[in-house]
Specification:
Distance between the termini: 55 Å
Helix content: 25-40%
Number of strands: 21
Low-confidence stretches: none
Largest sheet: 8 strands, mixed
Strand content: 15-25%
Mean pLDDT: 90
Oligomer: single chain
Length: about 575
């Protein structure tokens, strides 16, 4: 047997995002030899360019801060908004995720991760039973110089500054509100302070990825870049290794305890996007998201689920014409903005969660053309909010205008003509919207009704922080698309991240986590970090399972989780 293998290890992990690195660290901490492989020449995956948040209900930081939460309440919240669209979003998987949160967070803290809470960020449906504010956590800005030569190999594309999640909404109004100004000053001092200390701190997704990679390197876990996993090797119905293209050479790696597929989704695979989503894709996800991990899993009999869905959101074209689109958040939620279809009508709540926004665009397009739609901005929007100024720098505006992605006009009738929408319909839409803005109540779509809507609003705008009239020119209109942060369909897994066949049986030795899998969050998005949170936790759970020889502490973890699941399910049933 040994002569058939080029390399031997206990646990092989494909992918270097949060899911993969969480799995690798957990497996190594529990005594396993680990090899990590990455198809690209840069590590970090989508995590490195993301917001870096993890949705972690009932986490230890909440308890430290005296914020009440419980697995029961989070479970009720998840059940209410997710339902059970398939085995990937079963109650067993929901509970496994929720119950494992404290252990995962504490374990990573022991390894050196410096967690902090995004204490002001609400769940995306905070008015529903079990909804909360402040369940999201992230990593403190990290000095990337600690990574040595590996700092030059991180996937770039995120904000190369020590920003945190709650900075974003306040920094966007750094010169229009007192709170924004104070946060802006703190951010500047934080940035300058790190430079004076000879550090180069990064925040958000880059901080999370770098913190995890620092632990990976500290534990001497090999990381093979430019080494895609090409094929799984199966013996006696068990995955026992994989074929890797390592630096242009094909090698066979024996994985005694199993293989973890954490290689991301298929956001940049235009053929699959057209097949499963009916659109070519206007994604903010990085290169390399081609679905390789999903494909190799399917070839050994894995079931697929949720392939028709993604982590949708509004995006704008790249000024330089690159495939990677820019993801927009507060730009569509702040006052003095409105979104219309190609006829000039509103059709959604501009401030709703990004996944709802994307779903609504795709659904509305079946009746009225709205791909792309238009994001219309009053002049006050472009002068009050910092993020918009970053997007609409003179150079970017010029390029977007030339590409037909942006138009500008002194009057609304002129703007309608340049947009190509029905002028009368558009002007009537604006008139009706302005009435709502003055009254403070959006009677068509409820914009500004929830704490989540208000998070990206402006508290100085009264009576509704998300509504501002569209009446002061010059006006700008930008084309927006149903883009995404990544896809959310893939391999079907159980509560231990084990990959399942169509008949529900387990493919022994094969695990998967992150966007390689059908999401436990179903077709929705409960709160900030609902991608990376479960990706990390199921990477952790899969690695724990792989490290489970008889008589090890894993048995205690297994017993604890099973007992807690039974207790909560029994309590839920009795209340019903």
């Amino acid at each position: 047997m040994k002569n058939e293998w080029d390399y031997e290890t206990d646990f092989l992990v494909a992918g270097t995002g949060a899911a993969g690195m969480s799995a690798a660290i957990t497996a190594n901490k529990n005594g396993l030899d680990v090899i990590m492989v990455e198809s690209m020449d840069k590590w970090g995956g989508t995590t490195a360019i993301s917001g870096g948040g993890l949705w972690m209900p009932n986490n230890p930081l909440m308890k430290r801060d005296g914020v009440e939460d419980s697995v029961e309440e989070a479970f009720a919240y998840m059940k209410a908004i997710i339902g059970e669209p398939g085995p990937w979003a079963s109650d067993e998987r929901k509970l496994a995720f929720l119950i494992a949160v404290p252990d995962f967070v504490n374990m990573m803290a022991e390894e050196g991760i410096k967690w902090t809470r995004a204490k002001d960020y609400p769940d995306y449906y905070p008015d529903l039973p079990g909804g909360r504010i402040g369940r999201g956590i992230e990593v403190e800005p990290f000095n990337i110089l600690k990574l040595g030569k590996y700092r030059k190999l991180i996937r770039e594309g995120g904000l190369p500054l020590p920003a945190k999640t709650d900075d974003v909404w306040l920094l966007s109004r750094a010169w229009s509100t007192p709170g924004g100004f104070i946060r802006g000053a703190r951010f500047v001092f934080r940035t300058i302070g790190s430079l004076l200390l000879g550090q180069r701190k990064v925040g958000m997704g880059a901080a999370l990825a770098s913190s995890l990679m620092y632990i990976v390197r500290k534990r001497n876990i090999p990381v093979w870049l430019s080494s895609p996993l090409k094929e799984l090797i199966v013996e006696n119905n068990r995955v026992v290794g994989a074929v890797i293209e390592k630096e242009g050479k094909t090698v066979r790696v024996h994985a005694r305890r199993g293989v973890m597929l954490a290689a991301g989704g298929f956001a940049r695979n235009k053929e699959w996007r057209q097949k499963y989503h009916g659109v070519p894709g206007w994604s903010s996800a990085p290169e390399g998201q081609l679905g390789q991990g999903i494909e190799v899993g399917a070839k050994v009999g894995a079931a697929l689920g949720m392939m028709d869905d993604a982590w949708w959101g509004a995006t704008t074209a790249h000024p330089d014409g690159k495939d990677q689109h820019g993801f927009i958040l507060n730009e569509r939620s702040d006052p003095w903005s409105i979104v219309v279809d190609q006829q000039g009508n509103r059709y959604l709540n501009e401030s709703e969660s990004y996944i709802d926004f994307g779903h609504h665009m795709l659904e509305h397009n079946k009746e009225v053309p709205c791909i792309p739609s238009w994001l219309v901005l009053d002049h006050r929007h472009t002068t009050h909010f910092l993020n918009t100024v970053f997007i609409l720098t003179p150079g970017a505006k010029k390029k977007l205008k030339k590409a037909g992605e942006l138009v500008e006009a002194k009057t609304l009738p002129e703007l309608a003509e340049k947009m190509g929408v029905n002028k009368e319909v558009f002007l009537e839409t604006i008139k009706r919207f302005n009435e709502f803005a003055r009254e403070g109540v959006d009677r068509d779509f409820g914009r500004g009704r929830t704490k989540y809507d208000n998070y990206y609003g402006d508290p100085l705008v009264k009576p509704n922080p998300n509504l501002g009239t569209i009446e002061k020119g010059p006006f700008i209109a930008i084309k927006i698309y149903p883009g995404d942060l990544g896809t959310k369909g893939g391999l079907v897994t159980d509560e231990w991240a084990r990959v399942l066949r169509k008949d529900g049986t387990i493919i022994e030795g094969l695990y998967a986590a992150g966007n390689n899998t059908a999401s436990v969050m179903g077709h929705t998005y409960p709160g900030p970090g609902s991608t990376i949170g479960p990706a990390s936790v199921f990477g952790y759970l899969g690695a724990l399972h792989a490290a489970q020889p008889e008589g090890t502490p894993f048995r205690d973890v297994l017993a604890k989780l099973d007992a807690e699941k039974k207790r909560i399910k029994a309590a839920t049933a009795s209340r019903a």
